[in-house]
Amino acid sequence: LVSVKTLTAPDQASDTTLALTFIDQTPLRVAKSMRSDFVANVSHEIRSPLTAISGFVETLQGEAQNDPEARALFLDLMGKEVVRMTNLVSDLLSLSKVEAKESRAPKNRLNLNQTILQAVESATSLARKRGKNLECQIEPSLPTALGKRDHLARALINLLENAINYSREDGTVTVTAQVAPADNPLKRDAVMIAVRDQGEGIPAREIPRLTERFYRVDKSRSRNVGGTGLGLAIVKHILVRHRGILTIESTLGEGSTFTAYLPVAAPQHKN
Ligand code: ADP
């Protein structure tokens, strides 16, 4: 929907000012429908563990009451659903916090080597648990970026956890970090941090939708690994706030590479 307003200066025909104001109403309508989709999705995501828990409670109060083995099983299942809901709420909070600050780029100078190592260390135990090798090839003195250490570490942890969760058993997940080539997508001095896995890959048509909230290629697989469907949306918003960009490349049967490009901070002038 576009409305056009024409302004003219009638008394000075030679000096006519023509201003066209395009009021595009589509974004507002789309934004409204996205918000209601989001609320519907969140409600659905919360309702399914609650439905499961209420079923387990009923079973525990009924037939499983006097069966210690069944009780242990149902309590374990209930615990898993509670973890699922807790992860969902914590991802929703992270998303809303990072979105609220999106317009203000962080100003703190940040040591990227330390930030990447922090993320890799956090992902090590998951890699061990899932039997995956985690390899790092990080340039020793990466340029300084401007950013929030915990936010950027969170973005990298999300990429690492996905690479670990969605890749082949005994596969290797590789993290590389280096100065990006001049023709990088940011078209300015940047650092590129890539997370590569040996998974089954992602069909090309799915790639553009991966950073949408709650979009999953394989719902049951995401559920099995404890995914909330918000991980890549969080990564995207963190990178947007840092004026960075995420690229996703994938080859079916070979694996995927998620690359975060971050602008390098301007050198500090000494007074
Ligand atoms: P989730 O919590 O489901 O992992 P994400 O937003 O992190 O949510 O990812 C969205 C979906 O993208 C995942 O459900 C999965 O289908 C797909 N995906 C993400 N990373 C990978 C990867 N490294 N390999 C294959 N598929 C992936």
UniProtKB/TrEMBL annotation:
One cellular component term from this protein's GO annotations in UniProt: plasma membrane
EC number: 2.7.13.3
Recorded catalytic activity of this chain's protein: ATP + protein L-histidine = ADP + protein N-phospho-L-histidine
Taxonomy, superkingdom: Bacteria
Catalytic EC class: transferase
GO BP term (any one): cellular response to phosphate starvation
Keywords for this protein: Kinase, Membrane, Phosphoprotein, Transferase, Two-component regulatory system
Domain Histidine kinase: 41-266
Molecular function in Gene Ontology: phosphoprotein phosphatase activity; phosphorelay sensor kinase activity
Name this protein carries in UniProt: histidine kinase
Native source species: Roseovarius aestuarii
Residues of the full protein shown: 83 to 353 of 353
